[in-house]
Write a structure and sequence with these properties.
Number of helices of chain A: 20
CATH architecture of the largest domain in chain A: 2-Layer Sandwich
Distance between the termini of chain A: 67 Å
Distance between the termini of chain B: 41 Å
Number of domains of chain B: 2
Largest sheet of chain A: 7 strands, mixed
Shape of chain A: globular
Number of domains of chain A: 3
Radius of gyration of chain B: 15 Å
CATH superfamily of the largest domain in chain B: Beta-grasp domain
Helix content of chain A: 25-40%
Strand order of the largest sheet of chain A: 3-5-1-12-9-10-11
Structural class of chain A: alpha+beta
CATH topology of the largest domain in chain B: Ubiquitin-like (UB roll)
Number of helices of chain B: 5
Number of strands of chain A: 28
Helix content of chain B: 25-40%
Oligomer: heterodimer
Structural class of chain B: alpha+beta
Strand content of chain A: 15-25%
Strand content of chain B: 15-25%
Chain lengths: 801, 154
């Protein structure tokens, strides 16, 4: 293994700037003469806009421009889009309501941007924004998922005020966006009819905010002589943003739009999408002739960054007399929010339902998803994006079934595991490789599962309720194959990845990749691959992402795709450069390509001491006066990678808790995580991803929830005062990680990806543990102290009665 | 408008600014020291922590005018003559950062923690003392390790 190569715990190159305050985040970008934009946002969940008076605001000091939705529309700016078409069971297309970047005529969620005020300083813009007068007629609002389809529920997208119909030609008259299914209903119903035992659960998956610590920001600049825009933005995918802004929103042709994602401070999905703010700032930069900057305040982020999760589900699992699963049926209502965000329809369909087989052989599965509008912030991918929701359903059902059947929760799972790979599930996905028994064995050993009863008894002596919960998860990531799967599933764009490798004349290597690291250590891990290939020190390899002028194409980072797809593109590009370099070395050494060995930055004729360095080879490639005519000058190549399948990381988590019955407070006394991510580039970074994912999952299970007031539709959790983020003291007391490796056959380096797994597998492990501790299963997330205490009170009242 | 005269990273500066300017805004916008970050608007996240007269302060919750006459140290002032502070080294060696946005605040908080509580910090103490610092990426495990290691080398 090379010193800085694949599999080594190389310390991160990028740390230097981040630990010394030299990071360059979007809000750190300041252009001469820049103006500041502040958005006036709807204070109402649902309202008609009767009148807008910006006259007072426009006269205030420093105000340069005030932009409206009508102005952008007249200027040819198109609506924000959802890029994933989904059809209902009856064949009708999803009902995508128009989503103008600045509201026109109607607002549909608290926080929807209505007016943009642009001034010389941010303070002046804020002062003027307060002076904008908007006359609203408040309309009834619906915010709860379960209420959206009730008769008489306020309709979020109905006839437009001017009686025009929608973009797709039909007006809904209800909040139903689509009614979609996956699987075999007839076979599943038959399985249930023949079942010996059915476990049924009503499950709520709580709405979350993504909460990257860096909020979204935009700096937009327009060069009128060139008619060219430059956009600095906290995007997880600069090229995708460029395509959407150009081809769909009509901001500018692509060749007149450069997008730069500098350092991005976390994303968790929220920075994938195309939002109003970048559209408006680009427009404003052109109109005012000055750079326009916007940085979200945190309370603004709570009401504008896409939220996550928010499902209401009824799910049932059918067993035969041998505790083998016969069938699974799931009925979910998924809250999309007030408008369809870029990937919103995908998250609740193809990133959700196909995961319902879990790690198990399930002969018949049927999933029905009804996506609905409510007067809330649009919902889209947040870390895990559909897979946490699916895993929670499956793993809560399995644990509950074990309790109902009087079977050990580990054994009921083992009894149903998939053993033969590749495995075609009844819900589209074909799992690549895995060893679920291995994961389970490791986690049971690591968590001292068998000795739990003794620990439970000891805790009881201290007055604590001790519980243990298991979760064996699978997830699907590395979006996405552009073959049958991607295209047939209705995606508007294929999801390959691209890398270009350039060996410079004096031997340093530049790796350009179309992904976008925002904390995952790409500057180090991609460099490790190149360092490994040529045996060169990592210091001579630079990794470049994030600038559409430098990196020619790409799809960005989300869905744990950089591991499977980004590294594959780098490996394929390295293959081409290596082949080219070998040819040159062979020529210089008067040997054949096949006899060349590459070691420690040198090309050696095997069995001899005749060699040239990578630097010699590069110099020869560029000076090119002694190389054969059939060779091209230069030493650089580009490759695209189109995966043949998704990848399927899997794991087994055991969570052990102590609940204090006096307060309902849960302490996670021990958390054991065993994960299989296939091959890994840098184990140190992978561990960090698991830590972060698990704590994110602790947040969902115990602490985090977006709450809307049922009457007014007001966002009640609009800041960190009311929305509880996990902190260092929420960590498990004992937190152990272990790994297993079954490489993925779908990419050259065999990686599966690891960024989201912790957030996927953790919540059911925690809720399984708490329900075990308190002896009652009727508990929804987040299991706050108050909620657990109330549940205990109710349970003991029932017992006393 | 007010004139604020203070020392930042051992350099005397004087800035004319609006009364409502926060210390973090003065540092980031007037002085170009963008290493100190803004992550929230309710004083919870700690990305803005700096040292004011030797004490850790959330610079988003202090008016620039309140820092008149004070000695402020930001993340940019920790390394001396190109040599990293032990806490900065420890964060790298222990993979105590991912996206890096909360990191300046974490490091400044850690430096203050050691000053107040000494160099032998146990895990439980560090976890408790980080209540005012939020990270979404790392899950805190390696931050705690980094602080423990950095403390012993200060």
């Amino acid at each position: 293994m090379a010193h800085d190569g694949i599999g080594v715990r190389v310390l991160r190159k990028e740390d230097r700037r981040f630990t010394t305050g030299q990071g360059r985040f979007t809000d750190d970008v300041n252009l001469a003469g820049q103006l500041h934009a502040v958005f006036v946002r709807s204070p109402h969940a649902h309202a008609s806009i009767k009148a807008v008076d910006t006259s007072a605001a426009s006269k205030m000091p420093g105000v340069v421009a005030i932009h409206t939705g009508e102005e952008l529309e007249a200027g040819g700016i198109k609506n924000l889009i959802c890029g994933w078409m989904i059809h209902s069971k009856d064949g009708s297309p999803m009902k995508m309501g128009p989503y103008p970047p600045l509201a026109i005529g109607r607002v549909r969620f608290v926080g929807q941007p209505v007016i943009a005020v642009v001034a010389e300083t941010r303070g002046q813009a804020e002062d003027a924004a307060h002076a904008v007068q908007i006359d609203y007629e408040i309309l009834p609002a619906v915010t709860r998922t379960a209420d959206a389809l009730k008769p008489g529920a306020p309709v979020v997208h109905d006839m437009e005020p001017d009686n025009s119909t929608w973009e797709h030609g039909s007006k809904p008259g209800s909040n139903l966006i689509f009614d979609w299914e996956l699987g075999d209903k007839a076979a599943t119903d038959k399985a249930f009819a023949n079942a010996k035992h059915v476990t049924k659960l009503e499950i709520v998956n709580n709405r979350m905010v993504p909460s990257a610590i860096e909020t979204r920001a935009v700096v937009a600049e327009y060069n009128s002589a060139e008619e060219h825009f430059t956009l600095w933005n906290t995007t997880q995918n600069p090229h995708l943003l460029r395509v959407v802004l150009s081809a769909f929103i009509n901001v500018a042709p692509e060749n007149k739009l450069r997008i730069i994602a500098p350092d991005v401070g976390g994303g968790f999905g929220s920075k994938i999408f195309t939002y109003s703010e970048e559209v408006v700032c680009l427009w404003s930069a052109k109109k005012t002739g000055k750079p326009v900057k916007w940085t979200s305040a945190r309370s603004e982020a709570f009401m504008s960054d896409a939220h996550g999760r928010d499902h209401v589900t009824t799910a049932e699992l059918a067993f035969d007399e041998n505790n083998k699963i016969l069938g699974l049926r799931v009925d979910t209502i998924a809250n999309i929010g007030a408008y369809m965000s870029l990937f919103s329809s995908l998250i609740v369909t193809y990133l959700y339902a196909p995961l319902m087989s879990g790690q198990y052989v399930i002969p018949a599965i049927h999933v029905n998803v009804r996506a609905v509008y409510t007067n809330t912030v649009p919902v889209d991918a947040v870390r895990g994006a559909g897979r946490p929701e699916a895993t929670f359903v499956v793993e809560r059902l399995m644990e509950t079934a074990a309790r109902e059947l009087g079977v050990d929760p580990a054994e009921i799972r083992r009894n149903n595991f998939i053993h033969d790979f590749p495995y075609q599930t009844p819900v589209l996905w074909k799992y690549d490789s895995g060893n679920y028994d291995g994961l389970l064995d490791k986690v049971l050993a690591g968590s001292n599962w068998n000795d739990f009863p003794a620990r439970k008894a000891e805790a009881a002596k201290r007055g604590k309720l001790r519980g243990i919960g298991l979760s064996t998860y699978i997830e699907a990531c590395g979006v996405a194959p552009s073959s049958a799967e991607g295209g047939a599933l209705g995606c508007g764009v294929g999801m390959w990845e691209m890398s270009e490798i350039k060996v410079n004349p004096v031997g340093t290597v530049e790796v350009f990749v179309g992904t976008l690291g925002h904390g995952q250590g790409h500057e180090t891990t991609y460099a490790q691959i190149a360092a490994d290939r040529f045996g060169i020190p990592i210091g001579s390899v630079s990794v470049i992402e994030g600038d559409t002028d430098k990196v020619q194409q790409g799809m960005g980072s989300y869905g744990s795709r950089s591991a499977g797809n980004g590294t594959a593109a780098v490996a394929l590009a390295l293959d081409k450069v290596e082949a080219r370099a070998r040819k040159i070395a062979a020529h210089l050494l008067e040997a054949s390509d096949a006899d060349i060995k590459i070691e420690n930055g040198e090309f050696i004729v095997a069995g001899t001491d005749r060699k040239v360095t990578l630097t010699d080879v590069a110099l020869a490639a560029y000076t090119f006066h002694k190389l054969p005519k059939d060779m091209e000058p230069g030493l650089s190549d580009k490759a695209y990678f189109d995966p043949s399948n998704l990848t399927y990381p899997a794991g087994a988590f055991v969570c052990e808790v102590e609940v204090d019955p006096a307060t309902g407070v849960t302490e996670i006394v021990q958390f054991t995580a065993v994960d299989d991510f296939g091959n890994v580039i840098n184990p140190m970074i992978v561990e960090g991803q698991v830590h972060g994912g698990v704590v994110h999952g602790i947040g969902q299970a115990l602490l985090e929830e977006v709450v809307y007031d049922g009457e007014s539709g007001q966002l009640m959790t609009g800041s960190y005062n009311d929305y509880c983020m996990p902190r260092a003291h929420d960590l498990p007391t004992v937190f152990e990680l272990e790994f297993q490796t079954t490489p993925s056959p779908s990419n050259p380096l065999g990686l599966k990806g690891c960024g989201e797994a912790g957030a996927i597998g953790t919540p059911p492990a925690i809720i399984n543990a708490i329900t075990d501790a308190i002896g009652t299963n009727d508990l929804q997330m987040p299991a706050t102290a108050e909620k657990v205490w109330q549940t205990l009170q109710k349970a003991s009242a029932k017992a006393a009665a | 408008m007010t004139t604020v005269a203070l020392t930042v990273n051992e350099k005397a500066v004087s800035v004319d600014t609006e009364d409502r300017t926060l210390l973090v805004e003065l540092l980031r916008e007037n002085l170009g020291l963008t290493g100190t970050h803004v992550g929230c608007d309710t004083s919870q996240c700690g990305a803005c922590v700096v040292l004011v007269d030797g004490v850790a302060v959330k610079s988003c919750t202090m008016l620039a005018a309140q820092a008149d006459g004070a000695r402020v140290v930001t993340i940019e002032g920790l390394a001396k003559n190109g040599e990293l502070h032990p806490m900065q080294i420890a964060f790298n060696e222990n993979h105590g950062l991912q996206c890096g946005f909360c990191t300046p605040g974490m490091i400044m908080t850690a430096v203050d923690m050691v000053k107040r509580l000494g160099k032998q910090l146990d895990e439980e103490t560090i976890r408790r003392e980080l209540e005012g610092n939020i990270c979404r990426c790392t899950g805190y495990v390696n931050i705690v390790k980094a602080i423990q290691a950095g403390a012993t080398r200060m």
